[in-house]
Write a structure and sequence with these properties.
The structure is a single chain. The protein has 547 residues and is α+β, with helices and mostly antiparallel strands. Among the domains are: 22-132, Immunoglobulins (Immunoglobulin-like), CATH 2.60.40; 170-278, Immunoglobulins (Immunoglobulin-like, Sandwich), CATH 2.60.40; 292-361, Immunoglobulin-like, CATH 2.60.40.10; 367-446, no CATH class. 21% of the residues lie in helices and 35% in strands. The chain contains five helices and 33 strands. It has helices at residues 2-18, 135-166, 398-415, 444-447, 449-491; strands spanning 23-27, 32-38, 42-46, 55-62, 65-73, 76-79, 87-90, 95-98, 107-114, 120-131, 174-178, 184-189, 193-197, 206-211, 215-221, 224-228, 234-237, 242-245, 254-261, 267-278, 285-290, 296-301, 309-314, 317-318, 333-336, 342-349, 354-361, 367-373, 379-385, 426-429, 434-436, 498-499, 541-542. The strands form eight sheets. A six-stranded mixed sheet has the order 2-10-9-4-5-6, with no helix packed on it. A six-stranded mixed sheet has the order 12-20-19-14-15-16, with no helix packed on it. Strand 5 and strand 6 (76-79) form a beta hairpin. Helix 1 (2-18) crosses helix 2. It is elongated and about 160 Å long.
Length: 547
Amino acid sequence: MEHVLVLLVMLAGVTHAVFPAAETNCNATQNTSACSVALGGSVYIQLMANASGHQLRCKKELPSGSTNVFSLKKDKVVIQEAWRNRTEFFISNGTFKLSNVEKADSGQYTVEVFHPNGVLLETKHVKLDVQENTFPIVIPVSVVGLLLIVMAVTCCICINRRCRKRYPALRCVETSCDGRQDTTQCYGALGGTVGIQLITEATNLTFDWLKNQTFKILSVRNNIVRVNKLKNRSSLTLSNGTFRISNLSYTDSAEYSLKIFNLDGRETENRELNMSIQAPVSTPQLDDECLPQGEVKVSCSSEAGDSHQYSWTLDGQTLPDTVLRFPDSTTNTITLRPGLTGQLDCLVKNNINNATASKNISICKGFTWDNCTLSNGTRVERVVREVDAQCPNLTTAATTTQETSSEATTTGKETGTTESAVRSSTHIISSNHTSAVKPTDQPWYIRHILPIAGSLSVMVVLLVVVVGVRCVLMKKKKKEGTRKEQESEDAQDVTYADVRIMQRQAKPRQEKAHMEVEYGQVKVSGRRRQPAEPTEDDCVYAKVVKR
């Protein structure tokens, strides 16, 4: 709202600058005159034909008295200070000009005309009415209003067209259904209308139409509609027994039953009807993407609708499985083998409507057709990368591919598939006939299976050799450690010693002789040995020498 007000002010200023307030001419030569002028404009009030040689005095009447506006004496005009910037008087034609008129300028003006000798000749009364100048406001308001109307109409048209194209559910989609048979399946469009013929003729009949066996939707008794729970969006035509329901919603999906009664009120017939409400599908969008192997991945997406069903055609022919990377043409995404060209169509539909989108498919960038001729005269055409465009040695495969090509030709004739539709990544063209064969391009891991297997074998052999050498070295090292340990244990066997002291006869002394004893050190290894009882043969005698 603020933006609109700012726009109005700007337009008003522009309008005032481009279209200034109008000028008004007023003839006040009579004794009493009335003039109307627009606020902010200018007014020319002619008091006499020529004021030369006259004396004039112009006053404005106020409730408290009068105030002078201007005076003329001896052909000299004197204008009061309050009026000087916007007041002029032209003596030659006796015209008084008031510019930039204000609201306070409204009122009664008195002009006194004197003879040069000072005698009053006449008095003129002029009533000035200043009115609001609506011109600068009306124009911008009108312009803004017109622009808003144009914008609203344009937006409505654009939205309507866009919605009609992408969201058909917003259109008045009407479907029909014959409910005169039992267990009838009906479909209605979300937001649309469905016409259900309940009976052939509804005159002189009594029947009820129920939802889910319990909720009574419609009840008719002898041509009189007694109950209609959907009266705000439905109508019943008794002449043909058709019940029309508009503005359908998902809640209208249900099981309905029609019960017909005779004049005695007994039920004579009961029919079941199942109604399913679905949103119409919108126009799909096609997006394609080139894969590293030259294949083309195409996706078909429809934003609106329920229960989408997809189907594909190339140049008007159904796609065979031979041209698909994954043989399934009922999904919204397919992958085409390299080399396929033509107009690809995606059809999306449900039980309400269908919509189609088309896209021209060409060879992926960086790929090209490579033509080769075998030694037997057979010409091979295939799709390869531009850097790999060279003829391989296909001589050995000539016989097999020719036999396969004849079978493919027969199949193509039976299915009616055009040559462009079944065109694959490799073509074998002999001197007698031309035929399309099943694509021979294989995944990289299939084409390089032999080098990969050889590399893996070499790695396994090297691993076995390394493990074997490691095991031998560890075993040898273990044996050497065991031998050294055994030698160390043998060197540390226990040696027992039996030490005896032999005394020599000597002269008796008063003091006891000092004797020296030599001690032996016994070492015991950490390894346990079987206990053995020492024998006399194992004793070692040591001779003690006294120094």
